[in-house]
Specification:
Length: about 280
């Protein structure tokens, strides 16, 4: 797969936000997810799809990838599930506007997928698992609803390999704080590198893993990314959490926000992150 220019790396369960807990959505985040495509975000998964498959898209958000998958499995069906009802309303409108009729959206908990055993030919979870406090529970549920011979596809960024320039001490401190908060609220920003072992533990076989890079390298994308992270660092719940744990005070957090916004405007700003992807099969 090739690298791609992306304006943000977040979702309704953006970095550091457990999908079961906090929920803030910056304008830039909404714009990003509305612009996703299966050909780009799910390129690792598409070669294994066939026109008559029934596909489950877990954590589908506003439905951009889901609708694209519907255009790929033309004589099949795609069902998108998410816990955010507002996201699903957006997803339904998105599919209707694009005249994609073989997609359906349903409010559901990924820990208790409301479908019988062996219901789907393929399951996708894009930018989901690292935000869950119990990703293995979710993976075993996805394994349960897959038919024998069915395929799972998972993809998200592993923050162990982030590249940021310029990267002054205040941003180094801010980045480390973001990762600590992410883990404190139940997620794991370093989860994706473990795909091969966790998929195997969940019961999947013949696991294949790949990686690609996404980057921000112009004013539009660095500014959008910086404003989203700044928004995150101003979330009242996270501010209170950081202060209560003694990880930062209000003055330091304000300095971090200002530093990220200044970085977003820097003419030499560059951000790169590694996205891990894997497929596996249910025997």
């Amino acid at each position: 797969m090739t690298s791609s220019e992306q304006p943000l790396d977040a979702k309704s369960n953006q970095p550091g936000i457990d999908k079961e807990g906090l929920s803030w959505v910056a304008t830039e985040v909404v714009d990003y997810f509305g612009g996703r495509t299966a050909s780009r975000e799910a390129a690792f998964f598409i070669p294994y799809l066939k026109p008559n498959m029934v596909v489950l898209d877990c954590g589908c958000g506003p439905g951009a990838i889901t609708a694209d998958l519907g255009n790929i499995v033309t004589s099949g069906q795609v069902i998108g599930i998410d816990r955010e009802a507002a996201q699903l309303e957006n997803a339904r409108r998105y599919a209707q506007q694009r005249a994609v009729s073989n997609v359906e959206f349903r409010t559901a908990n990924i820990y208790e997928i409301p479908y019988p055993d062996s219901s789907f030919d393929a399951v996708l979870a894009h930018a989901v698992l690292q935000h869950l406090s119990e990703p293995m529970v979710a993976l075993r549920e996805m394994h349960r609803v897959l038919k024998p011979g069915g395929i799972i596809g998972v993809r998200e960024e592993d923050r162990d390999a982030d590249l940021l320039y310029p990267f002054p001490p205040i941003l180094q401190e801010a980045h480390a704080l973001t990762m600590r908060l992410w883990q404190q609220v139940g997620g794991n920003p370093y989860f994706p590198k473990r795909y091969r072992s966790v998929l195997r533990e969940a019961g999947f076989m013949r696991i294949q893993m790949t990686a690609s890079c996404e980057y921000r390298s112009n004013l539009e994308t660095t500014r959008a990314w910086a404003h989203a992270i700044a928004h995150f660092l101003q979330d009242p719940h996270l501010v209170n959490l950081a202060v209560e744990l003694g990880w930062a005070d209000h003055t330091t957090l304000s300095e971090m926000v200002a530093a990220y916004k200044a970085w977003g405007e820097h003419r030499d700003a560059f951000w790169c992150e590694t996205w891990c992807a894997a497929v596996g099969w249910k025997e």
